[in-house]
Amino acid sequence: MTSGATVPLVSIVIVNYNYGRFLPAAIDSALDQTHPHVEVIVIDDGSTDNSQQIITRYGTDISFLLKENEGADAGRNNGFAMSAGDIVCFLDSDDTLQPAAIEHVVEAFAGATVAKVQWRLSVIDEYGKRTGRSLPSADLCEGDLREAVIARGPQSYVSSPTSGNAYARWFLDQVLPIPEDMEQRSGASDDVLSMLAPLFGRVKALGVEGSYRIHGNNDYWGRSLELLDATVRDYSRCCELLRDTCTRMGIQVDVSAWQRSSWFCTLRLALQDLSDIVPPGDAFILVDDDQWGSGDLVAGRRRLPFVEHEGQHWGKPIDDEHAIGELERLRARGARFLVLGWSAFWWRDYYPGWFEYLRSSFRCVLHNERLDVFDLTSAPV
């Protein structure tokens, strides 16, 4: 299939590994696009379930490759090599696109030089039921983000997971194949393409245009701490790739500054701070806007989210009074410390009564650029 004279061809590349129970929904959502010029390419990365039988049933409606297991990034490289689209979208095989998603993407690529279009994804459970959340939780960035990437490096702007991105082919031609030496975690190749795109063109953002499925095998967004070491190693590799690209473009960068400002490097330092202060086995309240991706235990300490409901994060307090009441409720449940993470430092200004109550009632045992830690068993000195 070749690109039409006036209607851009869009390639939707789906890489699959043992997600046969979700794969038909992903393929069908790609085939059901309202945009009239779409090709669907499915790469099976050595599945051992019924995925390959599902794929072959689609016949000539899709192009596909059944290959040995080499990892998702290798699969995306294969898919791009098979594609002919002016625009390319890499759709995870457990996610879906809304029917008009590609139509809206094509409209966004029109006009000024755009390297990437990104959109939000509505979170669904393994049965397809909406949870009420969307990813990312923060507003997507758009515009000319070149200087932000040069100054802050990888992960320097809010970007969507794999299935929430589309790229101009002229951009991908200059940066692919994706390096296949990243650790096989979700988001490694997303980091590479997202960090490079602003160097070549503008980024545009849309609303919700698809679904991100959370299930037992893929909750990477909720397992930041479990994946922390691998993520930090991948981040260092991304820094090398971005530095090399900038060098080829004649741009000078400070990699050490990127690493100092990195979310996951900061998180690792914050965990060390927490371990040094909160005794093992103690319960602590974590105020992090639910951004750390932590479970019930953090470095051997029992975490109580804020606000908490049946052990889960339950959003933000309504007001200062509600926040103070929640603090006292969790203290009564045995919380000995409150940890305010940098991702929620804005709470100091948004809940001034609550923060003043903390400062005037309890001793602050640590204050740095990563954490405020209050001992809920002792008064200020």
How many domains is the backbone divided into?
2
The percentage of residues in β strands lies in: 15-25%
Instruction: Write down the oligomeric state.
Output: single chain
Distance between the termini: 74 Å
What CATH first level of the largest domain would be assigned?
Answer: Alpha Beta
Main β-sheet: number of strands, strand sense, barrel status?
9 strands, mixed
Q: What's the number of extended β-strand segments?
A: 17
SSE string, helix = H, strand = E?
EHEHEHEEHEEHEHHEHHHEEEEEHEHHEE
State Rg.
23 Å
The number of helices is 13
The residue ranges in which pLDDT falls below 50 over 5 or more consecutive positions are none
Structural class: alpha/beta
CATH superfamily of the largest domain: Spore Coat Polysaccharide Biosynthesis Protein SpsA, Chain A
What is the fold-level CATH name, i.e. the topology of the largest domain? Spore Coat Polysaccharide Biosynthesis Protein SpsA, Chain A
- Shape category: globular
Mean pLDDT over all positions: 91
Into which percent range does the helicity of residues fall?
25-40%
Q: Any idea what the CATH architecture of the largest domain is?
A: Alpha-Beta Complex
